[in-house]
Amino acid sequence: MAGKEGFDLVVVANRLPVDFTVSDDGDVSWNRSPGGLVTALEPVMQAADGAWVGWSGAPDLEVEPLDADDMRLVPVTLSAEEIERYYEGFSNDTLWPLYHDVIAPPTYHRTWWDSYHRVNQRFADAAVEQAAHGATVWIHDYQLQLVPKMIREQRPDLRIGFFNHIPFPPLELFQQLPWRRRVIDGLLGADLVGFQRAGDAANFIRAVRRLRAYTTRGPMITVPDEDGRERHVRAAAFPISIDSRRFDELARQPEIQHRAREIRSDLGDPEIMMLGVDRLDYTKGIRHRIKAYGELLQDGRLDVEHATLVQVASPSRENVGAYQDLREHVEGAVGRINGEYAEIGHAAIHYLHHSYPPEEMAAMYLAADVMLVTSLRDGMNLVAKEYVAARSDDRGVLVLSEFTGAADEMAAGALLVNPHDIDGMKDMIVAAAHMDTREQRKRMRRLRRRVLADDVARWSESFLGVLTAMPSRVPRSTGPARSASSEERDT
Ligand code: G6P
């Protein structure tokens, strides 16, 4: 652990990698929540002297920094109003839909922006407090786009990286945002801005050119510094992955294989088990998938005695209206299709509004003949990679939307679909259901080579490698913190 001078690596993300529970008598306890990001960063956090700044997930929870698994965890407190405005509002009802091709209409509220700005400043201040001189700070995702600039203003000695886990939209959509230049300036506070796909980096660079008129050359952007000097910001793609070996190993365990057989038998041993696994989010194309599936039953190209669809839809952002609407739509559609086509002992769709531990997920992946990933827009989609990592038997077919980051890497082995083209998607689902085992093996091997080689440890090493190889900053005396006021116009 670090001494008084602070940490050499500070990760800043909206959520901490632990879940807090507050008992009735007010005692706070926590459990690790092993999300993708923490798995990715654990080795580098342990090797470096690492601190993680993030929100506990609960309102008004004031918790002192704590040490867990060789990391210092630094909780940032959010009030109930900030959760409403910064998290549910600006992050998930403004930026999320805007950055996902406006599948749902983004809402623009000035009070939400003010809260986003204030909370970003709080994350930046907490990170600054933890960082040793010359440390590396790595900021994650759309909730914290103003943090890079806010940190740089206080600590020009730090190396600052930012990674956007979701898509970066084309300028024609991004420019709807009333605070678009403030967001660009916020991100340009970083030395390295990482994206999932080359297309996202290109969208960002184009937005910088058009909204700020800075010079760009390939991935390099020249930004004038406050003191009249120039500095360079690199914007490039670093497609994220999963801990592939962990899923591979999980799925090789006899208990998990036993559980996979049990799942199939509980489903009535269908010939074809199809699987969808998503957060219940309108970007995931769950409605399109269910519509296609229902039509296949109607057309008689699939029938409930031989095929079934298991749809895991984990609860997400339940206070946001668009998510409530989606849940109603999905549950209505599932109810209608089951009402119409199910028979005793043969549901058409098994709809599970829960989340499950990785062991159960690995068993479901092993049990599923066809994995359906039909997002309308998705930064990467890690479920597609988890499915592949779990299939050491070289069986199973991945049906994958063209609109996922994963499609850039997995086109060679997956069956690509456009989820808006319901007829095209129906044909692909049928092709997947009937694919012979030789073809399955050929495709799955290709996919596995890719997913097992490019795992998440490689991702974080490659991002941090590029960041730390960038020319180091000249240390200057740190003046008083200066940040743009929330009244400042978007000029
Ligand atoms: C996406 C985002 C993450 C976010 C996750 C879960 O993957 O990129 O930043 O943490 O969804 O959403 P939530 O709002 O529950 O954190």
What would you note in describing this structure?
This protein is of the alpha/beta class and 491 residues long. It has two domains: 7-240 and 464-474, Rossmann fold, CATH 3.40.50; 244-453, 3-Layer(aba) Sandwich (Rossmann fold). It is 43% helix and 20% strand. The protein has 17 helices and 18 strands. The strands form three sheets. Strands 5-6-4-1-7-8-9-12-11-10 form a ten-stranded mixed β-sheet, with helices on both faces. The longest helix is centred in the first third of the chain and has 21 residues, at 110-130. The chain starts with 6 loop residues before the first strand and ends in a 22-residue tail after the last helix. 48% of the residues are buried.
Helix coverage percent of residues? 40-55%
Oligomeric state of the chains present here: single chain
Molecules bound to protein: 6-O-phosphono-alpha-D-glucopyranose
Ranges with pLDDT <50 over ≥5 residues? Answer: 474-489
Can you name the CATH architecture of the largest domain? 3-Layer(aba) Sandwich
The separation of the N and C termini measures 43 Å
Structural class designation: alpha/beta
Work out the count of structural domains: 2
Q: How many β strands by DSSP?
A: 18
Family: Belongs to the glycosyltransferase 20 family.
GO biological process, one term: trehalose biosynthetic process
GO molecular function, one term: alpha,alpha-trehalose-phosphate synthase (UDP-forming) activity
Protein name: Trehalose-6-phosphate synthase
